[in-house]
Amino acid sequence: MTSERHLIGLLLGTEEDWPRAFEEIVRRLGPVPGAGGTQHVLDCERITIEPFWLRDRPRYNLVIDRLAYWYYHPREWLKKVALMDGVYLLNSPFTFQSMEKHAAYCAMMRLGLKVPDTVLVPYKNPLDNARYAYTAAKYNRPFDLDAIAEQIGYPLFMKPYDGGAWRGVSRISNAAELHAAYDQSGEMLMHLQKAIDYDVFARSLSIGAETMVMRFQPEQPMHLRYAVDHAFLSPDAGAEVLTIGRLVNAFFRWEFNSCETLVKGGEVYPIDYANACPDVALTSLHYYFPWAMKALVRWCIFALVSGRRPRLDLALDAYFEIADNASTCYSEKLAAYRELADGYFESDRYHDFCATNLPHLDEIVLDWVGGPDFDHLLIETVRSVYPAHEHDQFIAHLRGLLGMWVSDESTRLQAA
Ligand SMILES: Nc1ncnc2c1ncn2[C@@H]1O[C@H](COP(=O)(O)OP(=O)(O)OP(=O)(O)O)[C@@H](O)[C@H]1O
Ligand SMILES: [Mg+2]
After folding, report:
1. Which residue's CA is the nearest one to ligand 1's atom 26?
2. Neighbours of ion ligand 2 (CB under 5 A)
3. Which helix (H) or strand (E) holds 106?
4. What is the mean pLDDT of residues 72-90?
């Protein structure tokens, strides 16, 4: 019997929870059978940062990156291993240029999605550049901020074009708030966006060909933002949210991303879908954490064992062709996008692979989450995230939610 070894590199910042979970699941899973009787042995390793020769061959076959969005030395290493060595990346830094919200808004508007009306206004303060004063005096046209806001209509949101973590986001109800927020924006580049008065907020997390659509409560503290609710959307709205997430990801070649949509009546409005370094912390995902870890393990193994090739090229024309087809309506376009996106993610082949090659993963993870090792991880994570006087409260909170997952998952597996 032949065997093949694959090394998965984890490029990490401060997090310990999900990497430990990922490493543990891969360890418990053991070798994975592949085509022709080959056994695939998977190892994980945390990547360290050190000088690298550009012609060196990396040891890694696949890298999950949670660091390069702010740390540029490993980002340049990722570019090198993508271009020179064919390493499979979640996600490729070549997609980062679109990781600000702005490019994603443009792309999804171009495809006919219901992105709320959005305007990009010039910087409030002069930029720190010797050429700025001359250039601005000559070419910056005066504009009427109030008129733009009135045309969009109050309330509206002002938020950075490349935002994240609520930095610089404000909800604006009148002209005084508008000017105060713009004055404060300083050297941040800001969008004004029509506010949607939504019924529910759906946040979907996609990992390769899998997507979890979750009810999100942005007004709550972090640990309560994801609500456990399996039926908060109509089947149609649920399918649309799922399709939008898949579409965005296939379009930009993101394989690990979260997507925010606001749902009002039957309408689905995407507002933020460029989070290609998504939060998968145990403390925020809680009930959904085991799913996320399984999906990440499944997708990495599928990519490695089935020989899926990383694709850096963007096949934009195929999407634009659907968008430009005047004889199809919105729902027909969505169906066509979905087919393209599922094709990109090889959904059918992926699900067959999981059923055939990873049949015991569900039981392995259920056994682990229900046991003492996971409880250890939970306790250590709470201790590293919260102050001492909150430990008991958060340990109980997470144990309750994960206990509920164990019970639901046992029922699901027994029924299957
Ligand atoms: N057009 C909108 N209509 C209604 N609410 C909005 C709109 N845009 C933003 N919001 C609200 O503001 C929050 C933050 O906005 P947004 O997601 O665009 O910023 P962010 O900095 O990326 O935040 P996060 O990191 O939480 O995703 C959203 O979760 C939502 O509650
Ligand atoms: Mg957001």
Report:
1. 165
2. 260, 272
3. helix 101-110
4. 93
